[in-house]
Design brief:
The complex is a heterodimer of chains A (114) and B (113). Helices cover 0% and strands 49% of the residues of chain A. With 114 residues, chain A is an all-beta fold. In chain A, a hairpin with a 6-residue loop joins strand 7 and strand 8. The radius of gyration of chain A is 13 Å and the shape is globular. Helices cover 0% and strands 58% of the residues of chain B. Chain B has no helices and eleven strands. The mean pLDDT of chain B is 93. The chains are: A mainly beta (114), B mainly beta (113). At the A-B interface, strand 4, strand 5 and strand 10 of A face strand 4, strand 5, strand 9 and strand 10 of B.
Chain lengths: 114, 113
C-alpha cells in the first residue's frame, strides 16, 4: 500500500514560470491538505480539499496560487509566475475522514526559483 | 490566533542522556495535539495524538504528555537514530479550523554516540 506520493521531488523554475506540484493520496483517503515549509520556518497550512471541492483555502496566498483535486487523478497545486519567495518545500498530506483520523504526509516537493 | 512555540530550537544529547522537549500552545479550544518526527529531506512522520490534559502516550523511548497549556515529549536513553526534528501541532475546535493543523517551529535533536 503506497503512501502519499508527491512529484516531482525537486523542481527548479525561473522567475515568471509556472510550477505544478502533484499529490496522489493514500488509497482510500479522500481528504487532501497542502502545507508549505519555508526555509527556517515551520509548516504552514495552505489548503484543504476533498474530491472536486475546496473546503478551506484560508492559508493560500490570494494571487498566483491555486489548487484542485479532480474526480480522477492527483491533487494539483499550481503556482503561476513564480517568484524567489516561493522557494520552499511543499508537503501534501491525506487522511480518510479529516485530521482526527490521522494525517499521512508525502515526502514533499522542493521548489527552487532561480 | 492559534500559536505553537517549541523549545529548545536545537538540543544536543549524548547517547543515553534523557531529556524533554517542550511545546507550549495557545488555542481557542483544543481538539487535539499532535507530535511528528521529520528527518532531513522527508515529510513529517506521525508519532502521537493527545486529546485531553493528563493524557500520556508512549512509543519505544518516547513519551508524550499533555497539560492545558503545554505538551512534553520525553526521550529516555536516546540513541543516535532518534536524531531528527520533532514537530508539535495543534488542531483547534471549529468548523473549517477543525481540519487544519498549526505547527510549531520544531526542535532539532542531535544524539551523539
Amino acid at each position: 500500500n503506497a503512501g502519499v506520493m508527491q512529484n516531482p521531488r525537486h523542481l527548479v523554475r525561473r522567475r515568471g514560470q509556472e510550477a505544478r506540484l502533484r499529490c496522489s493520496p493514500m488509497k482510500g483517503h479522500s481528504h487532501v491538505y497542502w502545507y508549505r515549509q519555508l526555509p527556517e520556518e515551520g509548516l504552514k497550512f495552505m489548503v484543504y480539499l476533498q474530491k472536486e471541492n475546496i473546503i478551506d483555502e484560508s492559508g493560500m496566498p490570494k494571487e498566483r496560487f491555486s489548487a484542485e483535486f479532480p474526480k480522477e487523478g492527483p491533487s494539483i497545486l499550481r503556482i503561476q509566475q513564480v517568484v524567489r519567495g516561493d522557494s520552499a518545500a511543499y508537503f501534501c498530506a491525506s487522511s480518510p475522514q479529516g485530521v482526527n483520523y490521522g494525517y499521512t504526509f508525502g515526502s514533499g516537493t522542493r521548489l527552487t526559483v532561480v | 490566533e492559534d500559536q505553537v512555540t517549541q523549545s529548545p530550537e536545537a538540543l544536543r544529547l549524548q547517547e543515553g542522556e534523557s531529556s524533554s522537549l517542550n511545546c507550549s500552545y495557545t488555542v481557542s479550544g483544543l481538539r487535539g495535539l499532535f507530535w511528528y518526527r521529520q528527518d532531513p529531506g522527508k515529510g513529517p512522520e506521525f508519532l502521537f495524538t493527545l486529546y485531553s490534559a493528563g493524557e500520556e502516550k508512549e512509543k519505544e523511548r518516547l513519551k508524550a504528555t499533555l497539560t492545558k497549556k503545554e505538551s512534553f515529549l520525553h526521550i529516555t536513553a536516546p540513541k543516535p537514530e532518534d536524531s531528527a526534528t520533532y514537530l508539535c501541532a495543534v488542531q483547534a475546535v471549529g468548523n473549517n479550523a477543525g481540519n487544519m493543523l498549526t505547527f510549531g517551529g520544531g526542535t532539532r535533536l542531535m544524539v551523539k554516540p
